[in-house]
Amino acid sequence: KRNGMIGNIYSMGLALQALEATRKFYAPRKWDCAQAFSVVYAHDYQQPMAMAQVLPALVGSSYLDVAGLDCAATKDMSPSQQLPLFPKLGTHASIHVYYTITNTLQGKHFNYSTTVTVPRGSTLLRVMEVAAEENPQTFSFQTEQTFWGPYVTSIHGLAGSTDDRTYWHFLSAGNALEEGVGTYKPQDREHIQAVFSTY
């Protein structure tokens, strides 16, 4: 599905490990191994947790192989290829990002939009920070740090809740983002929407 993407970029590492580890005895349907790995090779991984989950699959192993690992035999090994695991340097040109926050679920409904100018290569988190700096009454937000990077807990004073099964859902052109706000890098004139949603 979706040119090799399995779930999203965060779930790819564990999915590839599982598919490789079980392919000999469990094959509910055919999957394109090369296509899936091409998605991984093309992505600039930045979160340590995502790297830790995808690296075993890239060397043909899974977490299941740890029990039989011979550390002495691997001390002189070197990577067989250069993997694109670290971010590329961007240019200093500015881009314009359209940013909208919407709530039609709880309390007083709202729909606010702004255009933010940031350096090319900026993350969505930076876009949100600039929007909040320029208009804190409307675009203020809070995050909490997780193993996967910053997680947006509230925007405009409205917080998600596990009790209500609500959260802030981020989309681009109506499609869910496959990365978190700390790593996703919007393109020039991209429209990012934060929609208060249920799961």
Automatic annotation (TrEMBL):
Top-rank taxon, per record: Eukaryota
Annotated cyanocob(III)alamin binding sites: 8, 53, 151-152, 177, 199
Species the sequence originates in: Erithacus rubecula
Gene Ontology biological-process annotations: cobalamin transport; cobalt ion transport
Protein name: IF factor
Similarity field: Belongs to the eukaryotic cobalamin transport proteins family.
Location(s) in or outside the cell: Secreted
Any one of the GO CC terms: extracellular space
Keyword Signal: yes
GO molecular function (one): cobalamin binding
UniProt-listed Pfam families: Cobalamin_bind, DUF4430
Keyword Secreted: yes
InterPro entries: Cbl-bd_prot (IPR002157), Cobalamin_Transport (IPR051588), Transcobalamin-like_C (IPR027954)
Limits of the Transcobalamin-like C-terminal domain: 121-193
Keywords, ordered alphabetically: Cobalt, Cobalt transport, Ion transport, Secreted, Signal, Transport
